[in-house]
């Protein structure tokens, strides 16, 4: 019996392979749970009740109010600058009421009052020039041409986004890579067990032939 049990003991290489497989399985499961709770669930909530529409620019204007932003000029160098508030009002194909356009969900959360946040520069004048350039773009290049925008009636009924932060590709990768990690772990464990089982059977058959 002792000899029979000894044949089923895993070698050091097989033991490492099993540990790697269980580690990948645990990592895949924890990644799915973590991404689901911390990232995927809020992303789906943002997408819930939303959709796409055709937008047309109604008005482009700068408000007198200025907002603060933080610039970085090195590892230990940070400061505060200001930029003017640009508002792009649009009409969607879903509603006749004007809506405020935003770059994406992140910009909407950062400053829901404005349509554009420029890359923060140390010089306020440079920030103003960036905003003015964006204003000319919406007035002259886009004008009355329709374009695709996105909305969410449940979360922000009076705002629309130019692009989505959480698109289908991002959501796919959120599920895909943890799932691949989990399946690779399962495959390693199954192959190690099968290889050991075949080796034990081959050894048993070999012993029977020599008897």
From TrEMBL:
The keyword Membrane applies. Coiled coil: none annotated. It is found in: Membrane. The chain crosses the membrane at residues 20-40, 170-193. One of its GO terms (biological process) is detection of calcium ion. It comes from the Eukaryota. It is a multi-pass membrane protein. Its main location: membrane. GO terms for molecular function: calcium-activated potassium channel activity; potassium channel regulator activity. The keyword Zinc does not apply. GO terms for cellular component: voltage-gated potassium channel complex. Pfam families: CaKB. Keywords: Glycoprotein, Ion channel, Ion transport, Membrane, Transmembrane, Transmembrane helix, Transport. This is KCMB4 protein. The gene is Kcnmb4.
């Amino acid at each position: 019996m002792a000899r029979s049990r000894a044949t089923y003991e895993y070698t050091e290489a097989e033991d490492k392979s099993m540990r790697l497989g269980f580690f990948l399985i645990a990592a895949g499961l924890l990644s799915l749970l973590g991404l689901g709770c911390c990232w995927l669930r809020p992303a789906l909530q943002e997408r819930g009740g939303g959709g796409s529409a055709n937008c047309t620019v109604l008005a482009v204007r700068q408000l007198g109010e200025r907002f603060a932003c933080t610039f970085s000029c090195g590892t230990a160098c940070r400061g505060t600058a200001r930029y003017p508030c640009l508002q792009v009002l649009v009409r969607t194909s879903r509603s006749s009421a004007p809506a405020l356009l935003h770059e994406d969900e992140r910009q909407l959360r950062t400053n829901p009052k404005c349509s554009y946040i420029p890359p923060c520069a140390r010089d306020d004048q440079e920030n103003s020039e960036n905003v003015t350039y964006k204003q000319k773009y919406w007035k002259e290049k886009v004008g009355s041409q329709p374009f695709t925008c996105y909305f969410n009636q449940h979360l922000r009924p009076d705002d629309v986004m130019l692009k989505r932060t959480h698109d289908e590709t991002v959501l796919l990768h959120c599920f895909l890579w943890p799932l691949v990690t989990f399946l690779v772990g399962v495959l390693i464990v199954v192959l190690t067990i099968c290889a050991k089982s075949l080796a034990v059977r081959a050894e048993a058959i070999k012993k029977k032939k020599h008897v």
